Amino acid sequence: MSFRARHLLGIDHLSPPEIVTLLDLAQDYAGLNRRTIKHSDALAGMTQINMFFENSTRTQSSFELAGMRLGADVMNMSMQTSSVKKGETLIDTALTLNAMQPDLLVVRHPQSGAVNLLAEKVNCAVINAGDGRHEHPTQALLDALTIRRAKGRLHRLSVAICGDIAHSRVARSNLILLGKMENRIRLIGPATLMPAGVGEMGVEVFEDMREGLRGADVVMMLRLQRERMDGGFIPSEREYYHRWGLDAEKLALAAPDAIVMHPGPMNRGVEIDGTIADDINRSVIQDQVEMGVAVRMAALDLLARNLRAERGAAAAGVMV
Amino acid sequence: MTAILFSNARLIDPEAGTDGPGSLLVGDGRIGGRGAPDEAAPEGAEIVDCGGRVLAPGLIDWGVKIGEPGERHKESFRSAGLAAAAGGVTTIIARPDTAPPIDTPESLEFVTRRAADAKVNIRHMAALTKQRAGREMVEIGFLSDLGAAAFTDGVRVVSDSKLLSRCMAYARGTGALIVGHPQDAGLSKGAAATSGKFASLYGIPAVSPMAEVMGLDRDLALVAMTGCRWHADQVTLAAALPALRRARAAGLDVTAGISIHHLTLNEFDVGDYRTFFRFTPPLRSEDDREAMVQAVAEGVIDVIASFHTPQDEESKRLPFEAAAPGAVGLQTLLPAAMRLYHQGGLSLPQLWRAMSLNPAKRLGLEAGRLTPGAPADLVLFDPDAPFVLDRFALLSKSKNTPFDGARMEGRVSGTWIGGNRVFGGAS
Prior knowledge:
The complex is a heterodimer of chains A (320) and B (427). With 320 residues, chain A is an alpha/beta fold.
């Protein structure tokens, strides 16, 4: 099997064959998920703990459902109301949890690199469900699967990523994944929302959205956080929508069969026009949610296989 | 519109850098060809005999405060237009530091409509931050689309460097020009004079000239970081010039201006606490004044403007440090500039480069030159005609001029906007 990773901390450490392996398995799970009996025993008897240090309804429930459908015992820990409040450090929390012998740990944390730190301290497989403005690998993988299903391929596509690139872990993971798969990437947004050093990332940067969308096969919109709308990064919601909101007029410049994506939750009328988000011929936003569960099932399954192999080898006294 | 032939004129062409006799033909409101001083008029053309006086592009005065909205008793668009026409100013670039400030598309539309009262061209700058409070950027995109000439918080410095850098980064995307006021806000807080022996002996709260150097250094570093188009409203110190030169040499898109008052007056003119000589930044030493005149001659300083700031009598009839800063200048810009011509060693083409051509180029205006096809915005004046200035004869609603009672030279006898005469009778 070509998927060798022990943890899924980011897209950065995955090779293209590993990405393809994961997407192929997720494609199978997508089929399973459409059946009435959506059950597999891939994780039977294993314990999955979802630790969310930052609120998220959709990602947490997607991981929860993924684990349950694979037969794992799933526990959700809302870390905002737990011992973290009492002053426990991240490492102590990790050690405490580790003592409970979980097999799979799904972690979201508001600080970049926190999930990597935690992964060093535990004996189980760790999945990064988003750390600060660093990476959100399962989001990039579900976007990749959605694109592959809609466009029939995941290479040589022109992908426009629009909006708050600077603060988006979704953008970073997508940038890495789509780059690894040899696509042409364009970043669109105001200079205030572009990360520094973007010129060296092998992408094209556009401040003019019309210019950036020209001929794009995939239009990926990003969510604009409320706290960035008040004049610090952009002047106002209305000016942002005028210049970088996706409406029919701007979308008309993209390829005629371009698909529209959004990681959610959407701000209708801020970054995307409501009718475009709802257009079943263009928008694949609901597909993204559906593929989210399938991709997370595939990630959990593959990591569990590697974990079992590693433990089996250790028990047999083999060096790995 | 009929054609006009300005014959027997002394033509100042700031673009070519020439000053010599000739005639100028104007048709359809635009500059036509040039000819000999006694060129024959085409059929049906009106002839204006300039009698050897100077005919030059009308002045473009960048940074004029008009009291609308909020302080119409100090200056209205109408009164500012009358003063401008009488002073040979054909285009006013208005400041946004009104009450309320021009910080929304709606307020920009309001002043654009109101400006129709003035008989000269008016372009408006918009604020850079909402309420000029330095906390949130204005809608730079919408305001640019509506024709905002530039973005500035005036003499209120945006001290939050992070916010200013974001304003600059955002402005770069729209191609907008940002006008900064180089000053360290903390250091210059409460100051009414330049620190030194004079201010100390008179006990006036003063600021080290270094506050301007510090402000300029910070702003230029942010320009280098963001790559935006930037203009310093007033650079008034010899010590600030090296930074400006370095920035240009490094390829930054940077220009700088100065007020006519800092080129013609110095700190000692304040004398016995005369509040009409209170400016922001305060008047500088004679050494600095001379260095700045030289900097204009060399083209290091690009723009000279009046920074026309009308203040009512009560704002000035106060102890020096409590008095409002600024002076009216629309009508005195030209005669004050003649001091630099007669005594300061600047030629008329050099002065017109700074007072018409450079501001036009920087702001993307067609005017400010004698090139065929440019709008026929012209001033006709006698650079040698002497007079004693009486502040109550000024057409501005406010009469706060530091030149009251001064002996000046340079009298405007005619002003034209697009070929239409807006000042002066039969010549």
